[in-house]
User: What shape does this take?
Amino acid sequence: MHALGLKCTSCEWSGDLNLRYECPLCGSPLEVFYDYDQVDRAKVDRALREYRGLWDFRELLPLRDSRHIVSLHEGGTPLIRSELPMKCQAFWKDETRNPTLSFKDRPNTVGISMAREQGFEEISIASTGNGGASLSAYAARAKMPCHVCVPESTPPGKVVQQMYHGASIVLCKGDYSDSYQHNRLLSQAHHWANMTSTYLNPFTMEGDKTIAYEIFSQLGRSVPDWIAVPLGAGAMLTGILKGFEELCLLGFADRLPRMMGVQAEGCAPIVDAWIRGEEHVNSWPRCSTIAGAIADPLTGYEKDGDRTLNSIHRSNGCGIRVRDEEILRAVRDLAAEDAMFVEPASASVAAAINQAVEKGLVKEQEVAVGILTAHGLKDVEQLAGKRKGTEI
Ligand SMILES: *Cc1c(COP(=O)(O)O)cnc(C)c1O
Ligand SMILES: [Zn+2]
Assistant: This one.
């Protein structure tokens, strides 16, 4: 274990590994930093060859003692060559095959294991549904009480998943940001470890970054030209980039992929700022999209958007907005041609790669990996036309 502590992402503050949610000096998000000189390259090399799941990358994760691991065998998901006529070399990272059918199992297995290691007895999360469904399964495994705040508009499938795992659920009025604030206050008052998958919990992103190690390994130890990621606040995008940055630091990779941040046109605070060339992200007044899992208006934590924007810039990436019709077409194409059934938020990456090819951003010979973040059965009413999108 080579994590040295937490440090601020915008000022000089650093401290120990004890869970905190923001910089005590400037209020910015925190991140885990490591002593990379101490990392055993041979162990990482072996993990890149033989990993079966996320915890095989322990050498680059912040947990001290393996006995604290709470795992449901997450990670180790396939990378699949697309047969769609994409006009580039497209691959899908199939995160629907995680234990609770979304990539959220990666941030949560690290977050809950760290919470257990640090002596927390109860955990919580604000979620658009998948994060809560995932965390409640891990909480059941760990026998820890779990508190979830989700918007009232959350698809029933995701709520029922949480119910059966035994979470206590608060259905919050308003959009995701309202759930975020409500959960934050409750968690502070009760000393619950807050696992909200924005940049609030500094450990969860360490789970996201393992997606990078797997993609690198699956492409025969090469770095794709592009990685397309659906954005909530964007912790997954920044996490994947961090994974590649580490592979470069450790001498395995020699460049970074260009990160393509994808949002729905009806809720695009980060991509909007990217398109306008602005440095700061403004919150989105009124979300309206079928891609509920990524409908995050960022109200009250706009700084999270700035950090994601910075990751896109740092990787020479881009932001793409997709319309709901494009997303629905992508859901159909992925299911019919590539035999992959994903929820709208996930399909947005296929629509975005298509757009980026048309715009000349992605070239024909380039490799583009799209992260298919969650399964289509999670929001089946929507896809059956029985429920309207998130509309607040
Ligand atoms: C949470 C989620 C995202 C966004 O991930 P962030 O790390 O919050 O940006 C994308 N797709 C799905 C299906 C999700 O559940
Ligand atoms: Zn700071």
